[in-house]
Amino acid sequence: MTEWVVLDIEGTLSATDQVLVTLYDYARPRLGPWIDEHGDDPAVAEAVAQIRELSGVDGGTDELVRVLHGWMDADQKVTPLKTLQGLIWQRGYAEGDLVAEFFPDVVPALREWHAEGVDLAVFSSGSVAGQVAFFRHTTDGDLTSLFQHHFDTVNAGPKREAASYLKIASVLGSDDITFYSDVPAELDAAAEAGWRTVGVRRPGEPYGDADFGPHRTVEAL
Which of 134, 158, 164 has the alpha carbon at shortest distance from 147? Predict the structure, then answer.
């Protein structure tokens, strides 16, 4: 048994389409209004400053939104985009517009690990705020109590770099960690950091036919 299980979300716990279709479609028309209505929110102000810095755009909200939509179309894991999406999704879940759904094997596995004393954490490119909202409002109820930590590209770093996994291990205070992901490059980075790794091969998902190399693979948790 491992001390910690760290889990990816998209393609591992939940269908990629739920993020790239359902959640993206929900956020897309709300980005501009959110920027305009929450300009005094420090997180939004910082995100706007980061968008300008990364894109070189000097114009108003419409130009910022065009940049954000371009990043979304390319499925780029850009921090200010993830911040704004997370805030929008957080409200969407709270208001009942959004409900998180998982692959059928996921919630039983999470509950079994938790009952056995395994500590659970999440490492996703989606913001921590978005992650917490996701697990709070699910078809199986509020699952936030199952998790000890949430990590994203802001508080940990890029998912394909070993340094991010070393940083997470430092926070968790453990070197007995198993990482589950559907992306071989993420598993490679985790293994380089000394973690155990498990590739989750979901039929029909983007990485369902990927080459997982040396990583142990499963089709269900």
Answer: 134
What pLDDT digit, counting tens, does each position of 4-52 carry? 999 999 999 999 998 888 999 999 999 999 999 999 999 999 999 999 9
* CA contacts within 13 A on the Cβ side of 71: 21
Tally Cβ neighbours within 10 Å of residue 90: 20
Structure confidence by residue, pLDDT tens digits, 117-141: 999 999 998 889 889 999 999 999 9
| pLDDT tens per residue, range 162-218 | 999 999 999 999 999 999 999 999 999 999 999 999 999 999 999 999 999 999 999
Distance of alpha carbon 120 from alpha carbon 118, whole angstroms: 6
Q: How far lies 211's CA from each of 33, 103, 199, 205, in Å?
A: 42, 22, 10, 13
Structure tokens at 197: 């790794």
- pTM higher than the cut 0.85: yes
Task: Give the CA diameter of the chain.
Answer: 54
- Find the helix packing angle between 79-94 and 61-73, rounded to 10°: 90
Rg (CA), the chain: 17
Helix, coil or strand: residue 211: coil
